[in-house]
Amino acid sequence: MRTFLGYFQFINESDTSDAFKREKDLSDHLKKHGAMNKDIEAAGSTGGNDFHIEHPTTRKKVAGKEIKSIRVEGEMKKSVSTGKFGSVALRYHPQKGWHIPEKTQKDKPEFTKQVHDATVTGPDKKKRKLLNHLNHHWGPSKEGVNHPGVTSDTTDMSPAHAYMHDHNVHVVHIGDRGTFRAGHSKDKDHHNTGLPILSGTGRFSVSSERKRTSEQQKAGTGMQINFRPHPNSVKKSHTDISTDEGIKKVMSNMSKRKK
How many whole angstroms separate alpha carbon 255 and alpha carbon 112? Predict the structure, then answer.
């Protein structure tokens, strides 16, 4: 009989394997259309972004100048309902209270700012900043005490864009919604992809991390803040780069110089 821990590990391994296969399938599809460097492996084996689109002007002359390399970095999500669109660790310190570690703030500055700006309307009907709410209601971490989950007030998709901005992403592909501009290309279509902006609403949630060290488990400090969209708020894109028509359309748009 498989133990619960063994089953949990099996699920994690299955999820990782499935995600890598999806990324590889998309990468192979893009390479077939000359949209991705054929020498680049799927992200699951490199730790980089999930995919990229090689700009059609790469290694060509535009206005008399050779364009050596332009890569449009991309993020991939299985579906809008299952994907986390940004996450940060949360820790407790006697002087700082519940906070985002300094290294995380440095590595993810845009997403950290969104977390700091997020609010929660508590049972007392008072609106507080998310971290202030946690420190007000949770207090110090105690061994063996599980903190209740917390969900922020609804916001737009700015946290998702901030998360992708931190990862140098311009394009996001969502399996059940298609392909969108995001992150660095949120406000301006820098590469002339013709893609719509990722829009909708969502909320932050605070819960235990899936993997915690024994020290974190003992102290109860292994918490994480995630941002997830409201699935029904994200409408389908008019373009899906996982289809032949979709990637051809994007590559055609990108090859046209703006006047």
Answer: 35
Is residue 242 assigned to a domain? no
| Same domain membership, residue 51 and residue 111 | no
Rounded Cα distance, 72 and 57, in Å:
12
Asked if residue 156 belongs to a domain, the reply is yes
Tokens for 45, please give them: 């084996």
Nearest to 233 by CA among 177, 180, 162: 177
- The answer to whether residues 145 and 217 belong to one domain is yes
66 and 122 together in one domain: no
Per-residue model confidence as pLDDT tens digits over 21-75: 889 999 999 999 989 988 776 554 334 689 999 888 766 655 566 666 688 999 9
Q: Is 224 found in the same domain as 177?
A: yes
Q: Which domain holds residue 126?
A: 87-233
Residues 171 and 178: beta-carbon distance below 8 Å? no
Kindly report which listed range (29-38, 160-169, 227-236) carries the lowest average pLDDT score.
29-38
Instruction: Indicate the number of domains in the chain.
Output: 2
On whether both 39 and 133 belong to a single domain, the answer is: no
